Amino acid sequence: MVMKNFKLLFVGIVLLCTSQGCNDILQEDPKTAFTTDYYKTAQGFQDGLNAAYSYLRFQYGSNPALGLNITGTDEFTFGPEPNYNSSGDNQPHKLMGTYDVTPQIGYLQITFNRTFPVINTLNGLIAFAEQVPTFTEQQFRESVAQARYLRAHYYYLLVGHFGSVPLNLGSGDLAFNTIPYAGFNRGTSDAERTELLSRNYQAMIEDLTYAAENLPDRRPAGEFRLFKAVAYHLLAKVYLARHYSTVSQTGDAQKAYDAANEVVTNLGKYGVALQQNFTEVFRQGNDYNSEILFSAERIPGAYINNGYLNANADGIGDGENMASNCFTSNYEQPVLQTPAGLDIIDGRPLAFQRPLRKLAPTRWLTETAFADKVNDARYHGSFRTVWTAATQNASGTTAYTNFINTLTTNGRVLGDTAFFLADSPAQAAAMGVSGANPFGTKYYRVYSSANWYSNQLYAGPPAPSNVVLVYPSLRKFVDTERASPNGSSGRPMPIFRLAETYLLAAEAAFEIGNATRAAELINIIRTRAAFRTGLSAPVLATRVANMQITSGQVNFNFIMDERARELAGEGSRWTDLALRGGADPSKFISRVNLNEDANGKVQAKHRIRPIPQSQLDAINDPEKQKYQNPGY
């Protein structure tokens, strides 16, 4: 089984009203016969697993997933495109970034409505595994372990966004259902939902414990098949989430530490290791490196099979990997370049990605979290701040030749700097930026953070004369091999990596009162963060020393800051904050309020999302509102 060759195929469609519309399901006219007996064959079981793996594409890297998991956090706000473009793929970013989230927002369905059929399929696989006649004992255990891990993973996403969610999809808790069901087994009182939340966590823990015991020790090279380190990683996240929740149990933080520590102290056993250089983690062509534990894989070039809207992957569909594009600012503006008005970035070069500008980093992230851009290589390793003369046209074409001639006429060549975003206002001033000359005096334009886009400065169009629609653009997911300048990515989208495992172990160590061990683990990550290619040994030693912290510096907010520096934009920030604010919403509110768009808007209710209206409409109960989360 090679996940990167999965097709987006759901074998065994689930007839549930926890998905959408029972009436639509009953009116279908199937053209091929299918029974659940197919799951009782080795091929049928594998196809069901493949389908469950493949749905991760919708949860990681897609435009709706980026909106749900990143917009409105302390790290990222909505960019200029959602600010003035109300199209369906833009507006949810603005609504989430202004905390005007209603049950009607379609992006909610990506995680809620569409995930329950996947879970139901996994329930069926787990139930039927014993009836697959060709399974050896090892095949049985590993196959069930994959299914149980994936079920826990999907429940983790649901609980992180919506709070308690049904375990009973119509046939009992975690049981396979094959008939239309119009109920919603979630409870309507606080006590019922709290009891269900407790069972949600217990179900995840039991599934992940089984997975950690029965998955292979290592993943195969070149594919993201599940292995033990992934199960331990998510188990640590689940125990930490329960530790912070209203249903916490004694020993949760210790068990979270034990799970994460199992991985970081047995790197050789699990075949995992940190990359020496932070930028190597995300280098295209190095997607299957030893640090990335798990990714949502796509098939480069097979756009329809990846769930894209068309063969060229030029749309912005629910399954497309748009992570390389959504973080990219509007570098196409000639006003950004020198000489003024000369377009020395020709079209949309593949290296620069499509400037969809849906997400922009907060000033807190770029200026406070990343205040140290000298010793800490992760800012420049994460963000593009320099754009150069480049073209989207292939060498030898007429358009390419004409562009080169234009550059030559103006004394420029390919690779010359077009514009630069200074690391700090002080650096911008040193490069000639002033009130009288807001864009610097160098041969290329220089922009201070006072000039680049933020929602606080930009109310346009038109923008203030000294503000441009550009900002540091996350480059972790750059794909230079897309089918077209507007194309989506065929790269795997990282879900978990070993650096986070260290941070989970550190956080759990702090929560059990061992700040010394927490600092030790964090310093492993910060030591790697000091590395840059080409540094002399003395300079590197100085930077490593400057990056070390003491146990006295470790606290909850420092850990959250460090997670932002290491994991910015990697797709889990909303649930990271929401789950840590389970029993104490002030933790969530204080973190989100670091986003300058959040102050005065974010409330305790925003920690969990509203149940989608489409789900409420499908419930066979006239009193639908009682199933909604409080405040919506």
Architecture blueprint of SSEs:
Elements: H1 22-26, H2 42-54, H3 56-59, H4 63-69, E1 76-78, H5 80-84, H6 91-97, H7 108-111, H8 115-128, H9 137-162, H10 190-214, H11 228-244, H12 252-264, H13 267-270, E2 292-296, H14 323-326, E3 345-346, E4 359-361, H15 363-369, H16 378-382, E5 383-384, E6 386-388, E7 390-391, H17 398-409, E8 417-421, H18 425-430, E9 445-447, E10 473-474, E11 493-497, H19 498-511, H20 515-529, H21 537-547, H22 556-567, H23 573-580, H24 585-592, H25 613-618
Parallel strand pairs: 3-7, 8-9
Antiparallel strand pairs: 1-4, 2-11, 5-10, 6-8
Helix pairs in contact: 2-8, 2-9, 8-9, 9-10, 9-23, 10-11, 11-12, 11-19, 12-19, 19-20, 19-22, 20-21, 23-24
Salient structural properties:
632 residues, mainly alpha, three-stranded mixed sheet, two-stranded antiparallel sheet, 11 strands
Explain the overall architecture.
- The chain is mainly α and 632 residues long.
- It is 40% helix and 6% strand.
- It has 25 helices and 11 strands.
- The strands form 5 sheets. It has a 3-stranded mixed sheet with strand order 6-8-9, with no helix packed on it. It has a two-stranded antiparallel sheet with strand order 1-4. The chain has a two-stranded antiparallel sheet with strand order 2-11.
- The longest helix has 26 residues, at 137-162.
- It starts with 21 loop residues before the first helix and ends in a 14-residue tail after the last helix.
- Residues 1-31 have low confidence and may be disordered.
